[in-house]
Amino acid sequence: MERFFNPKSVAVVGASSTRGKVGNSVLVNLIECGFKGKIIPINPKADQIEGLTAYPNVTAAVQDVGSIDLVIVTVPARAVLAVAQECARQKIKNLIVITAGFKEVGKAGAELERQLVEIARTSGMNLLGPNCLGMMDTHTPINASFAQDFPEPGEIAFISQSGALGTAVLDWAISQKIGLSKFVSLGNKAGLNEADFIEAAAQDPNTKVILCYIENVVDGPRFMEVARKASARKPVIIFKAGTSEAGARAASSHTGALAGNDRTYETVFKQSGVLRVRRMEDLFSLALVFLSQPLPRGNRVTIVTNAGGPGIIAADAVESLGLEMSRFTKETIESMRPLLPAESNLLNPVDVIGDAKADRYKIALEHVAEDPNVDGIVVLLTPQAVTEPKETAETILEVHKKAPDKPIVAAFMGGKSVAEGASLLRSAGIPCYSFAEPAVEAFSYLSTYARLRERQGHKPLPELEVERDRINEIISEAAADRRHILFGSEGAEILTLMGVNSAPTKLAKSAEEAVEIAKEIGFPVVMKLAAPKVLHKTDLGGVKLNIKTESEVFQAFHEIIENLHYHLPGTQAYGVEVQKMDRPGRECIIGMTRDLQFGPLLMFGLGGIYVNLLKDVSFRVVHGLDLADLHEMVQETKAYKLLKGIRGEKPGDINAIVDTLAKVAILSRDFPQINEIDINPLFVWEDGVSAVDIKITLREVGKA
Ligand code: COA
User: Fold this and answer.
1) Does ligand 1 lie within 6 Å of residue 123's CB atom?
2) Is 473 a residue whose pLDDT tops 70?
3) Atom of ligand 1 nearest to the CA of 129
């Protein structure tokens, strides 16, 4: 990609003398941006365009000037393939196709695009587009786009899937005097996609922060790998459009139903260290925070305010964002006490009260900045008659200079009277917002990213020695039987083979057989209808608990089959499963569903019958899973609080849960025939766990 952003020679195929045409704009942009390499217009009808020698085609140009590093195509769609083929013959390595009229216009366009990709692929050509605005690198400098303006050099790379939005953002960035390092309009992403440019920006010494606007990800696993590596070096901040769940799959499991499309992206971003923003405007404001502020050592925030209300609002935001309020040392409090009015609040939030001038802010800020329990400061200001916004801003800058390792963000609330102070802060690189919450939120992104960076090493899922042949056999038998849902007994056997404790379960075809099985596994037992088609067995009397004698087993078998025939006449049962009744435990759920883009998704949460109602679940993508993720996914749920034990309860065996999660992840990684897994409930005891109800579904077989 080096020559892509830093070519020695660039040709524009379709360069035109007619002002206003795309082929003219691209050429003029290349000339006007100060590009130092050779610019070669290509047009069969002209000898000269914009004062440069024009060539009739790429071949003629290569013959005359030698190699060309980058070709930008601005001819109509019908002429693009021939140009691409010619470029391939001339060993051109980088191609930008600005032309529209491909996949985005339907079937014929999609076919054209397929052929274009094929040419690029077979000739090893980097292809950006088609249907894109082009790209820019302000440090080269090169403006290989038909955008109207060229931003100042800066340290922010902006990668956009939408060209139109890209131009709007460029225009805005220029008006705000925000510099960029690179700008890339991804277009249809037929060749190069977001991952390629995140990777390039991560390696670019001129880029400190990477921003992306995307609507989807082309290659899930590669995106995750690239994003993980990139975010270990610099912040990757993404706005992803299309968060509605309209496209969510039809799922036959709890896990599938809970893992919506947006939730998957949320998981992917978190797991790969990407910071996700929910508002477009936050992309750049956050980039500026990262450019100007140091990363905090922890998540303990101090609020300094001249008004109680905003202090409370900020403290609420601290809590809801999972941050902590700093607790000052005694020395900090005692040394502030004689210097501030008696009515001030010396604890956090520090309230220097309404009549505070800059000097009181100075006292408070200097003291808290020195406190070892303070990781970052949020300064709030509301304009009263005596407030000094400009002087307070100067004070903040002074304190920031003295304590450069602690991030400071501000919220100057109000309009005209605070404008000068706010703009002083902003131009000196201190983020200043109009309200308290975004200021706290900015700190929370800094602290999240700091935590991500601290993550050391990557412990992948291990290989596991298991009886693969037996697991494959169980799956093949079900497939041969045209069952895509395994019996609970089959699920239990698979999990047992994986080393997960599960209550012994066997399928009985007759009441007599059920009695024999019950005797073998020991009383009490649970009996469950074995009819994979029936989803809610309990509702139709298909489950009987706590069966203690042989005669009860006999009777239960017949009752279960009769209940089925009564409620769902004509439905075939394979028999009744007899399961050892486990001692009760806390009920959790572990599940797996497959995402088309990212592969197996693992789920953990509060189990039982209220799973879908409470939705207390967390997810991780199995691809590239770090063992540390498994602990985190348990800790993220409210169930974790229950598992730790409340009101004197003994804690549940969290290590056994993590071990089961790892095994389910390995199972889904190593057995692609498995489509979904639900273990609900997973009983969690003080000493171990038991998979009580197991549903495993297969893919690519006829429906049972
Ligand atoms: N080699 C070199 N030049 C060629 C050529 C070829 N094979 N075929 C045509 N040309 C020349 C034309 O003669 C013309 O030059 P001229 O002005 O000197 O006559 C120039 O290339 C452009 O061709 P033209 O037919 O005038 O097309 P156009 O400028 O009206 O439109 C596009 C071309 C690419 C701009 C248009 O097809 C398009 O895709 N527009 C949308 C772009 C877009 O929105 N992209 C996505 C942004 S997010």
Assistant:
1) no
2) yes
3) 46
